[in-house]
Amino acid sequence: MVNLKSIKPIDDKALEEIGFTWHTDSDGSKYVSDKLVLVTHQEAENYYEAVNELYDMYAKAAEYVIENDLFFEIGIPFNLVEMIKKSWENDVHWHVYGRFDLAGGIDGKPIKLIEFNADTPTSLFETALLQWALLKFNNMNEEEQFNNVYDALRDNFRRLITLFDDPEMFDERYDGWKILFSCVEGNAEEEVTTRLLQQIATDAGFNTYFEYIQNVRFSDEEICDANDNPYEYWFKLYPFEDIAHDEPELATILTHVMENQKAILLNPPYTLLFQSKGIMKILCDLFPDSPYLLTTSFQPLHGKCVEKPVFGREGANTKVLSSSGEVLKANDGPYGNYKKVYQEYVEFPEDSNGNKYQAGVFFAYEACGLGYRCGGEILDNMSKFVGHVLVD
C-alpha cells in the first residue's frame, strides 16, 4: 500500500505565476494531487541505484543493436540509422537527460522497468520545481526530497564541453558556445519544459536562444534562428520518430549537418534506441538475470501481459491482455501503426482507493530526481502528478 500525506494545494493563480499553466485537466479535475507519497531514504536510494544500473544496461544494449544491425528489429526508422550511428561514435553527442518509468519500490515490491523516456521526456517542471514549491507552500522541509534535477541538469549541460571531466572545468573551456532551444508552438507544457531547459543551460554558462521549430532555418551547413544566426547546439523537444515519418527531408538535412560537423543535436539521435520499447526485448536477452527487467518479447507472452507500440506516449495504443489473449483494458491513440512489444504484466503500487502509482526518475549523468504519476490500469494523459517527501 502506498503511504500518503495530505497537503494544501497551491491555487491556480499562484501556479500560473511560476509558469505552471497546465494545472487543470480537460474534465475539470486538478492535474497536481493534493497528496504526497511518503518515501523512505532507503527507498530513494534503491531508486537511485536501480536507475544508474539500468542506464548502463541501456548503453550496452544500444551498442549491441548497432554492432548487430538490429535497427529494424526494434522499429527504428531507416532514415535515422546513419544519424544514430554517427552520434554514437563520438562522445561530443552527449545525452542531456531522460526519465525512467518504474513500478514498485514503495510497496515492498521490487523495482521494475516499465520504459525509458530518453529523447523528449516531460514532467520536468513538475519534478524539478513544483515539488519544491509544494513542500514550501505547506511549511515542510524542502530539502527532504530525492530531487536535485536542476543542479544535475546544469552540470550535465556543462559536460557538453567538459564531457567526462569535472563540470566545474567548463569556465576555463568556455568560448561563447551557443544553444538554440525549440519546440512546436501551441503546447504550453512543452514550451515551458523547453524554456526551463533553456534557463538551466543559461545558468550553466551557455548563450541561449529560443525559436519555435517552424521558424528554425536548416541547411546542410548550419542550424540557424529566424535571424540567420548559427548555433553549435540545437535542442528540440520534438520526437526523432516524428521527424523520420513527418519530416523526412529534415531527417536528411540533419544527417548532413552531422556529417559536416556543423551542429550537435540534443538529445542526440542515439537516444531513439533507448526510447524504442523494442530495446527492452534486447535488454532481456542480454541481462536475463536482472532483477529490474520484466520479460519482454515481440510476440504475445503466455501469461498476462501488456501490449505497447515501440513508440508512443501517455499510454496511447496500450492494451492489457489476459493469459488467453483477451483484451482486459485498452487505450486508443495515434501510434497503432508502430511495431508492438509485449511486456510481462506487473501490479503498480496502489493507495486505499485503488489508484495506481508509477515512479518517474530523471537521469542526467546519474539518477537525480523522483516524482509519481497516479491513475488507472493504464496511466494515460488524465493521470495526475504526485510529489513526494522523504521520511525516516
Summarize it.
With 392 residues, the protein is of the alpha+beta class. Helix content is 31%, strand content 22%. It folds into two domains: 4-276 and 349-391, no CATH class; 295-344, no CATH class.
Describe the structure.
The chain is α+β, with helices and mostly antiparallel strands and 392 residues long. It has two domains: 316 residues, no CATH class; 50 residues, no CATH class. Helices cover 31% and strands 22% of the residues. The strands form four sheets. The chain has a seven-stranded mixed beta sheet, sandwiched between helices. Helix 2 packs across helix 11, helix 3 packs parallel to helix 9 and helix 5 packs across helix 7. It is globular. The chain starts with a strand and ends with a strand. The model has no long low-confidence stretch (mean pLDDT 95).
- Helix content estimate: 25-40%
Count the beta strands.
Answer: 18
In total, how many domains does the architecture comprise? 2
Poorly predicted runs: none
Number of helices: 11
